[in-house]
Write a structure and sequence with these properties.
265 residues; mainly alpha; Multidrug-efflux Transporter Regulator, Chain: A, Domain 2; 2 domains; 12 helices; rod-shaped
Length: 265
C-alpha cells in the first residue's frame, strides 16, 4: 500500500492536487489505516495519470469526471476529439512561432518583400532612418487597404526615387529633422512644390492622386506623418502658398507664389 505522497510522486502530481481531486469527486478517498493515514493501491497511480493527462490537455475537471465513468467507445471518441483540438492548437502556435521569429526581420513583419527592398534602397541613398520609418508606417495601412496594387505602387516609387530631385528633397528633409527652423521649412516647401509641379506636368495631374484612398485612410496617413514630425503641418502651410494643398493627397489650389530657387541649399 502506498501513502498519498508516494502515489502523488509516482503519478507526477502534487499531494495538494490529489486532495483537490478527492474534493471534486474525481478520485475516491481510500480508507484510513489504524494510524489515521490514507493508504492507496497501485491502481490509483494509473487513475491519477489519466486525470492529470486529461487536465493538462485542457479538459475541464467536470468533463474529466464524466470521461472516467465513460465506456471504452465514448472514452476513445472523446480522446480523438481532444487530439484534434490539440493538433489545431499546435498549428496555431506554430503560426505564432513563425510570426515571432519574423519580428527579428524588422520591416519584413508587415510588408511585402518588394517594399522592404524599396525601404532598403532609401537607406542606401542616405535617407535618414526616421524618414524611412515614416515611409514604412505609412505603407502598412496602404498595403492593407489595397494589397492587389502593391506591385504597381512600388514600381512607381522605384521610378520616383530615381529622380535626383526627390532624393534631394529627402536629404534636405533629413537635415531639417533636428533643426526645423522656418528657413529650412521654406527650403523644403520650395523643393517639394517644384518636384510636385514637374511631376504633374510630366505625368498629368491625375497621376498624383489615383490611389483611390478612402478619406478616413487619408486622414490616418496624414496623422502618422504629422505625429512623427510635427513641423510637417507647417510645411503643408508653406506648400499651400506654393499652389499645392494636402499631404497624402495633393490638390492644385492655384498658381504657386514666387519662391526661392528650388535647387538652392
Amino acid at each position: 500500500m502506498l501513502t498519498i505522497g508516494e502515489v502523488a510522486a509516482y503519478a507526477g502530481v502534487t499531494v495538494r492536487a490529489v486532495r483537490h481531486y478527492h474534493a471534486k469527486g474525481l478520485l475516491p478517498e481510500p480508507e484510513r489505516d489504524h494510524s489515521g493515514y490514507r493508504r492507496y493501491d497501485a491502481a490509483v497511480v494509473v487513475e491519477l495519470i489519466r486525470i492529470r493527462t486529461l487536465a493538462e490537455a485542457g479538459v475541464p475537471l467536470a468533463r474529466v469526471r464524466e470521461l472516467l465513468l465513460a465506456d471504452a467507445v465514448e472514452f476513445a471518441a472523446a480522446v480523438a476529439d481532444i487530439d484534434a483540438r490539440l493538433r489545431a492548437e499546435i498549428r496555431q502556435r506554430q503560426r505564432l512561432r513563425d510570426r515571432i521569429a519574423r519580428l527579428a526581420a524588422g520591416d519584413h513583419v508587415a510588408l511585402p518583400p518588394q517594399l522592404v527592398e524599396f525601404l532598403d534602397r532609401l537607406r542606401a541613398l542616405g535617407v535618414d532612418e526616421r524618414i524611412v520609418r515614416v515611409e514604412r508606417d505609412g505603407w502598412i495601412p496602404l498595403v492593407a487597404h489595397s494589397p492587389e496594387r502593391v506591385s504597381e505602387l512600388i514600381a512607381r516609387k522605384r521610378e520616383q526615387i530615381d529622380d535626383p530631385a526627390l532624393i534631394d528633397f529627402y536629404l534636405t528633409l533629413g537635415r531639417a529633422l533636428d533643426r526645423p527652423d522656418d528657413r529650412r521649412l521654406v527650403e523644403l516647401a520650395d523643393k517639394m512644390a517644384a518636384y510636385i509641379t514637374r511631376l504633374a506636368d510630366d505625368e498629368g495631374a491625375d497621376y498624383l492622386n489615383d490611389l483611390d484612398i478612402e478619406p478616413p485612410l487619408v486622414k490616418l496617413l496624414d496623422a502618422l506623418a504629422f505625429d512623427a514630425w510635427p513641423p510637417a503641418r507647417r510645411l503643408t502651410e508653406l506648400l499651400k502658398e506654393r499652389g499645392w494643398s494636402g499631404w497624402t493627397e495633393l490638390e492644385h489650389v492655384g498658381p504657386p507664389a514666387v519662391a526661392d530657387n528650388p535647387e538652392s541649399g
